[in-house]
């Protein structure tokens, strides 16, 4: 699936957002994001799309990444089949 | 144990196994941090217990956020002579003083991972203090936390942070309330398409758990796990 790479050397990561638990499913659930972006960008995107401040966000292998992690690092460790699956739920992590 | 029908909780023995696995992984992956130490302790030291009881401890972690406005406050330097005979001047002129900003004060945090036999899950106990040992109240600790944590805290802190007696040390500590833990732990593990065996779940349980609770304090959980 060789898409034309942009002239810059920044590699983009394909992210699939996956609703779990009681979370609403997004109409646009797949997108590309520069690997050098922080995971915080994905979390913020989700918050804005779902109009929710508190979200429970996690990736494969039962791990919830710190917002400061780089997307490319997460892809390298948890990516599968050319994409990074990011799960989200609306349940409260606390209490 | 069938993971599909698992309720997200651990037995005390599972917790001990999981705790050792966690501390080993943490140490091998995270050279920047001190290791988690297992502290042997008993809630009822007068009873002979065949099982090792205890908790995980990570202490004296500096959690102060660098303050961008961290400048030494210098009060007005004056010649020190009082101006007499100028009734209009109501300022008291200080001797020249250099006042160290209190922003230089560092805050530390101790974390203990303790097993709750009521909820059958790990619970994070914490306390924070200055370099002179003075304990910090929650309002002070809040200022050291990442922005999204303090937002959550300001909304509903007393629903999930309580101050209680540490089950082993018998002193007041704060704890993150565990009543939701089993539910979100289940979500973490059962959404994984790989559907791991319980032995694998146990190996990863505390690492996964800490990846969530550690974020409250901006602590980064290592994840370069070799599969």
TrEMBL record, chain A:
GO CC annotation terms, alphabetical: Atg12-Atg5-Atg16 complex; autophagosome membrane; phagophore assembly site membrane
Presence of keyword Transcription regulation: no
Gene Ontology MF terms: Atg8-family ligase activity
Keyword Phosphoprotein: no
Coiled coil region boundaries: none
Keywords associated with the record: Autophagy, Isopeptide bond, Ubl conjugation pathway
One Pfam short name: APG12
Function: Ubiquitin-like protein involved in cytoplasm to vacuole transport (Cvt) and autophagy vesicles formation. Conjugation with ATG5 through a ubiquitin-like conjugating system involving also ATG7 as an E1-like activating enzyme and ATG10 as an E2-like conjugating enzyme, is essential for its function. ATG12/ATG5 conjugate has an essential role in plant nutrient recycling.
Complexes and interactors: Forms a conjugate with ATG5.
Protein name, per record: Ubiquitin-like protein ATG12
Organism in which the protein naturally occurs: Hibiscus syriacus
UniProtKB/TrEMBL annotation, chain B:
Source domain of life: Eukaryota
GO terms for cellular component: cytosol
Any one GO biological process: protein modification by small protein conjugation
A Pfam short name: Autophagy_act_C
Gene3D superfamilies: 3.30.1460.50
GO MF annotations, alphabetized: Atg12 conjugating enzyme activity
Record keywords, A-Z: Autophagy, Transferase, Ubl conjugation pathway
Family membership noted in the UniProt record: Belongs to the ATG10 family.
Protein name: Ubiquitin-like-conjugating enzyme ATG10
Taxonomic lineage from the root: Eukaryota, Viridiplantae, Streptophyta, Embryophyta, Tracheophyta
């Amino acid at each position: 699936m060789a898409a034309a790479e942009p002239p810059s050397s920044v590699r983009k990561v394909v992210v699939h957002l996956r609703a779990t638990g009681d979370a609403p499913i997004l109409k646009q659930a797949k997108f590309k994001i520069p690997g050098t972006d922080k995971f915080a960008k994905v979390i913020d995107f989700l918050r804005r799309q779902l109009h929710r401040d508190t979200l429970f966000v996690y990736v494969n292998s039962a791990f919830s990444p710190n917002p400061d992690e780089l997307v490319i690092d997460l892809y390298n460790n948890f990516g599968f089949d050319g994409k990074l699956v990011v799960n989200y739920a609306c349940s409260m992590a606390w209490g | 144990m069938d993971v599909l029908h698992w309720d997200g909780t651990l037995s005390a023995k599972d917790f001990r196994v999981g705790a050792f696995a966690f501390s080993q992984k943490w140490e091998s992956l995270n050279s920047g941090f001190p290791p988690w130490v297992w502290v042997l302790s008993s809630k009822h030291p007068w009873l002979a217990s065949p099982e090792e009881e205890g908790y995980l401890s990570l202490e004296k972690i500096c959690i102060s956020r660098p303050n961008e406005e961290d400048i030494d406050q210098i009060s007005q330097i004056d010649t020190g002579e009082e101006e007499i005979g100028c009734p209009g001047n109501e300022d008291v002129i200080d001797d020249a003083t250099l006042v160290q900003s209190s922003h230089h004060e560092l805050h530390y945090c101790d974390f203990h991972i303790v097993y709750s036999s009521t909820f059958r899950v790990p619970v994070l106990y914490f306390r924070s203090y200055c370099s002179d040992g003075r304990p910090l109240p929650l309002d002070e600790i809040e200022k050291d936390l990442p922005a999204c944590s303090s937002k959550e805290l300001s909304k509903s802190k007393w629903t999930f942070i309580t101050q209680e007696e540490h089950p082993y040390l018998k002193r007041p500590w704060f704890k993150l309330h565990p009543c939701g833990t089993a539910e979100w732990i289940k979500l973490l593990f059962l959404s994984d398409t790989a559907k791991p065996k319980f032995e694998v779940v146990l190996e990863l349980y505390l690492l996964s758990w800490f990846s969530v609770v550690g974020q409250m304090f901006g602590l980064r959980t290592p994840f370069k796990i070799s599969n």
